[in-house]
Structures
1.
Amino acid sequence: MQTNREQWTSKLGFILSAAGSAIGLGALWKMPYVTANAGGGAFFLIFAIFTIFIGLPVLLGEFVIGRRTQSGTILAYQKLAPNTKWSWTGRIGVVTCFFILAFYCVVGGWALLYIWKAVTGALSGLSVDGLAALFGETSNDPLQVIVATVIFIAINWFVLSNGITAGIERANRWMMPVLFLFLLILIVYSLTLPNAMDGVVYFLEPKFADLSADAILQALGQSFFSLAVGVGGMITYASYLKRDVFLPSSALTIALMNLLISLFAGLAIFPAAFSFGIEPQAGPGLLFVVLPAIFNQVPFGIVFLLLFLVLFLFAALTSSFSLFEVPVTAFVENRPELRKRVLFIVVIIVTAMAVPTSLSTGVLADVTLFGKDLFGIADYVASNILLPIGAFLIAIFVGFRMPRQVLWDEITSDGAFGFRLFAAWLLVLKYVCPIAIFFVFLQQLGIL
């Protein structure tokens, strides 16, 4: 183990940071909508089962790779499988992070713009149509979106320049509890509105008749992506982890926190939407059109809208921290004196990708590939192609390439993990997870 390598100061700091990495935009603006329209409680139950029994094993595999090697996602494979092509799995993860950040930073910039608009009163009194028009004007304004995107990147730069403990861990230690607190406040508020329980029923009533094969594949895919596996972020975070942390309990805690946030987001959104008869939707329309329209109709609604926008920003930031950290750690490794220089280069690359992406609904709207604008291209390449490939390779590598004794040592370190449970985990990782990921990959490409 390198003596000059930073480490998380506590298990809690690691869990909050890893959970922040996993809890991203999808949990807040996609998962609730998909759940409500693909089977409600039945979909959420399937999603929870897949998360625990398929997504969690891959997450644990990433933890094993990271802590065992105490290295970033490229060097980790070089250490475990020297003189092989496995290090390309790490390189794919680094490339995936750049593609995700290309659109993630744009959405983070939108959140910053709307926090400012909420504070200045620019959202007050507008109807759904008015808010839709405002979002169109905002996202098409080159100056606004570029400045906001750059500010979001700059926040990441500032936090990551302070390193793992003083930067990422310290930020997550207060951002994650605040995120939970804000969500709880919004849930209590939403449930007090008229007809709130109709929204709860719509969101969580088990509708097994709506649970199609496509919905099941969606739940399966969401179980992987919601845990942020496949990009090497969890390998990177685990590489800063002490030996006395019991990996299975940490992974399970993170998976349960992610499920809880997905549930909380739906309970905050749907009761309020049904209370005012506004049709919920997924994506930017939910955050920047639907929710402002809802909160405009209640006393002090702008305060609660501001809370939601801030927690959305926090979710975006805690995820983007890990996305930036993957290439930074991969290129710095055990030379911490180079961290700020490498971080600056990574920031420049991300900015060069994110700024054109931020203009994809405006001046660069005509720049398309296969019918997708720059934002859509970055999202599709990362989410539909690179992420499934990364998760598939990680499952194969841990299941078939790593020595069983190494896996046993890491999994059972400082905790009780019986042989039968270990054997079941390894069996799922070797055979169930790769097959499941392969089917998700085909579904994402539209083949299934």
2.
Amino acid sequence: MIQIVKTSTYFPPGVETAQLLEEKTGIPENVIKEKFGLYEKHVADSSMHASDMAINAALPLLEVVDPLNIDVVIYFGSPFKDYGVWSSAPKIQYELGIKNAYAFEIMNVSSCFPIALKVAKDMLTSDKTLNNILLVGGCKESQIIDYQNPRSRFMFNFADGGAAALLSRDNGKFEVLESSIYTDGSFHDDIRVPAGGSVLPASHETVEENLHFIDVKDPADMKERLDPVSVANFIKVVKDSVEKSGYTLQDIDMLLPLHTKKSMFNQILDGLELSEEKAVYLDHHGHMSALDPLVGLDFAEADQKLIKGNIVVAVSAGTGYTWAATTLIKIRD
């Protein structure tokens, strides 16, 4: 039995309200709140980066486990980190004093937390020499938004923060059950930061043309192809995950989705026949890459919304496009 022992989150003190976002975007405050589902979000200043927020999120977990007893550190957060072509996992391992662990990263943009749960569970199941794995992520994707670019308008909810989870074989609150992951690679070319890679290296021209911000190649074309399948694929991976775990959609007590616009959130709930009370919606935090479902789990626990026996599903989707879900059951209060 592979379990989540404890979760933790961190948010930088800076906050951008819907009113401030109206000034930046020209989109009315009420539209940002009602359509984007965003009242405010946390934004880090220039002194704090994705790795720093990941470290701050993980610190409380070291109160329940000796850092020297952690065997693996897995960074699953945003691919937009302190530096390009750079792994933050070794920095996190070093700064937290987790000297006996090896560290690495997995990256599948926003879909990565349910996948990271599966990876950690599979590692603990197959390798009996491992006892404790730290999943940790950071996000500073507020910095890759060009608020004057209407093509990336649906990504104005990008926000900053950190989240971490300790997985072990015992003493946990949640058992990690089964996962379902689905990729439709036909969307691989739709969303990206155009410059800074080998296709379009950084230059004076790329900076002047704002090509180092996230962009959507052809929003109308992507919408035409994505809208008919996106909600259906969310429902598909949730259904597959709970059924592989021995349950049905009717058994779900709490859904932990990524932050999306309010209409998509409602469509997912309708498709799963869940009320809003059975989901965590991050309307005061926004979208933090892969962190959202873990943030939701931490919030649900802090708010005492979960009791022993509850079935909980972490679900997310990442550009490219991959949809992923992992089912949990609460085994201890």
